[in-house]
Amino acid sequence: MDRTERTRPSTRQRLLAVCTATVLAVPGLAALSSAARAADADLVRNGGFEAGLDGWTCTAGAVVNSPVRSGSSALRATPAGSDHAQCSQTVTVKPDSQYTLAGYVRGSYVYLGASGTGTTDVSTWTQSAPDWQQLTTTFRTGPSTTKVTLYTHGWYGTGAYYADDVSFVGPGADPGQPPAAPTGLAAGTVTSSTVALSWSPATGATGYAVYRDGVKVQTATGTSTTVSGLAPSTAYAFQVAAVNDAGESAKSATVTATTSTGSGGSTGHGLVGYLHASFANGSGYTRMSDVPDSWDIIDLAFGEPTSTTSGDIRFTRCPVTECPTVESDADFKAAIKAKQAAGKKVLISIGGQNGQVQLTTTAARDTFVSSVSKIIDTYGLDGLDIDFEGHSLSLDAADTNFKSPTTPVIVNLISALKTLKAKYGSTFVLTMAPETFFVQLGYQYYGTGKWGGQDPRAGAYLPVIYALRDDLTLLHVQDYNSGSIMGLDNQYHSMGGADFHIAMTDMLLTGFPVAGDANNVFPPLRPDQVAIGMPASTNAGNGYVAPSEVTKTLDCLTRKTNCGSYATHGTWPGLRGLMTWSINWDRYGSWEFQRTFDGYFG
């Protein structure tokens, strides 16, 4: 059904149509009218907000999927305090020319206007628009005006307003040609997390775009900038492009720089494994004291909720009827202390395949914090692993920005984890084990998508990882039981070989635009925050790879040798290590996975 309202033409409209037809029938006059119309164009960029806030600068705006006038998106902006929530866009125009600005709005005291016209700046507004109402204004540019700023805003303290289908019609200006590519790009001061760059000015440039490993990461107005948020001991490749109204130049020649070692994070390699502590399966039960010293982080599998939405997490050790060789609670706790005395970390892992956890309310959030704290305190554990799978995390349709999530299950989980981190302090170990569907798939799809219809779980871990990146000890994505995933080379990669692990890990260490939006980039994690998740054997899960493929993966990522068809965007000797499901299955397979790790890292 067409969403645009249709009404019967009025007498005035019918008369106007007749007059128009008569005028256009006059020879010469018709050609003049057609030429005039052909010269006009809609010059506003992303007036329907279908591409997010691309082209707009907003103080308090976001894109929503409801209400909308057309398409699937609209602007929602909320005034607060001294901020009237303005969204603006600067447009190139012709001097001494006529323009019409129009847009549809909803809300109270909503304004639409233009400034910098060179004549009289204009605005129009509505006091109250409970449904979509069109605002329109016209103006003529001054004799030397080449740019005007279009804007919409609300009024202080009057609540949110909405805007959609903004248009700006008039003669387009010839933007000329993009500048030439900048020259003289050089790296200056380098620290463990920053690289200073400088380059020669490009004639005709109004700004510059800075690329790191082929991904646009920031802009600059001058001929120097500092790229921050980098990982220690990591090589990066930088390029710069010049920008003006006509577009972006070709990229400059590449300059490389390697960050210094720094003092933050872990400098050692680690082996992470899950210990079947609450159940038995075909792999058999393994006592805590029988776990070899090679395992640096031991995740107790699993703490599970009393119900999906309760937030009440319980950890019940495997009963003797199911695990005849299970040790007593006293021996179990003593073995944990012995591991910790040897420098190992023991965590409670929450979730797993059968433990769906949805913190839909603040009450569930608070129960989660208190119940997890009780488990940690009872067994004297070092921290927490989040292994939420299945339908634990998904995104509401209107939740489109991973940097500022609004979905309750996401917001409440972030809050709970921050509370636990604050409670236990800097020594608290926080790890996560999402599936590729919840992380790397976000390169293509995020939530339900702009047009709807996508799986709302796509990329749903990204806001959690992003919000906790400064508190996160380790992320080990499960590179198993996965479908094919597109890498940064825009090719699909499948389980079964080194290339899959290389491509998936490269995405975490390079960063990637979420849902293909170059202006919404998930930033890279530090190498010491990343381990590669693999099954210990063919019995443990789909996606098992032989030791030779594990070695190829590590060679490519840490040394940039022995690589296959996938080209990485860097080299990361500080990569933390490997994770496996599970310690039990590795024991069942004669410790093949552990021996591969020990043989590589020593």
Strand content: 25-35%
- Per DSSP E runs of 2 or more residues, the count of β-strands stands at 30
Structural class: alpha+beta
> What is the CA-based Rg, rounded?
29 Å
Percentage of residues in helical conformation? 10-25%
Silhouette: globular
Enumerate how many helices there are, as a single number.
10
Largest sheet: 9 strands, antiparallel
Weakly predicted, low-confidence segments: 1-38, 263-267
Mean pLDDT over the residues:
89
Distance between the termini: 66 Å
In terms of topology, how is this protein built?
Elements: H1 11-24, H2 29-39, E1 40-42, E2 57-58, E3 61-64, E4 74-77, E5 87-92, E6 98-115, E7 122-140, E8 147-153, E9 161-171, E10 186-190, E11 195-198, E12 207-212, E13 215-220, E14 224-227, E15 235-244, E16 247-248, E17 255-258, E18 270-276, E19 297-305, E20 313-314, H3 329-341, E21 345-352, H4 362-379, E22 383-388, H5 408-424, E23 429-432, H6 462-467, E24 474-475, E25 485-486, E26 492-493, H7 498-510, E27 512-513, E28 521-522, E29 531-535, H8 547-559, E30 577-581, H9 583-588, H10 592-601
Parallel strand pairs: 18-19, 18-30, 19-21, 21-22, 22-23, 23-24, 29-30
Antiparallel strand pairs: 1-9, 2-5, 3-4, 4-9, 5-8, 6-7, 6-8, 6-9, 10-11, 11-14, 12-13, 12-15, 15-16, 15-17, 19-20, 25-26, 27-28
